[in-house]
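A quick aside before the break. I want you to see a complete sequence-to-structure record at least once, exactly as it would be stored in a machine-readable document. Don't worry about memorizing anything.
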Amino acid sequence: MAQEAENKDSIGALQDLIAKCRLCPRLVEWREKVAREKVRRFADQEYWGRPVPSFGDPRARLLVLGLAPAAHGGNRTGRIFTGDRSGDWLFRALHKAGFANQPISVDKNDGLRLRDCYVTAAVRCAPPDNKPLPQENANCRPYLLRELELLKRLRVIVALGRFAFDAAIDSTGLKEPSSRRPKFKHETELELSGGVTLIASFHPSQQNTFTGKLTETMFDRVFARAKKIILRSL
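That is the input. The structure line, written in tokens, reads:
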């Protein structure tokens, strides 16, 4: 129990550190500009406007890795994948697979709890056009590396989109390194170092869900597979 409490405190301290980060001038300017100007539908709300902490169970065996917070999602609510359509898809799928106590994520006080699951992003600030620069990605990498160290029971990473897929490989390393970068494809599975399985998924962005590139059945299958791998490892 003492070890669990220490791990939880360490992850909490890391998230406090992330929320104060100002390493990337372009991202600082953008996230704060969005928080000031807002959009009409959220004009009466106070935006978070800072780096968005990760969220979930510090003893998780499943890590969900995204690209970055949405300008009017996580950048508004202060919780990753919360308050936007992508989050609606993600937490609905996690609930179906038994990783979340409810299928919705509206704000930080909505009662959502994750079980055996931790949700994070490669970049912690909302970037213009959802496109972080290489240096911004590099600046955020130590936070992800530290999370991977702290999540000592980790067995599966679900990477949402190509950017997250590459970030997972770069941060963890392949079990059998090769000179060629593995191709990103929905439901691709790779073995990473340390006995972790990487599962690739299309990102649940509106661009993918509205066009049918990603369906609920396809998305649910990813988390059902993740759960099967975790149970097999017991």
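Two observations worth writing down. Strands lie at 55-56, 62-66, 117-121, 156-160, 189-192, 196-201. The first helix runs from residue 2 to 19. We'll return to this after the break.
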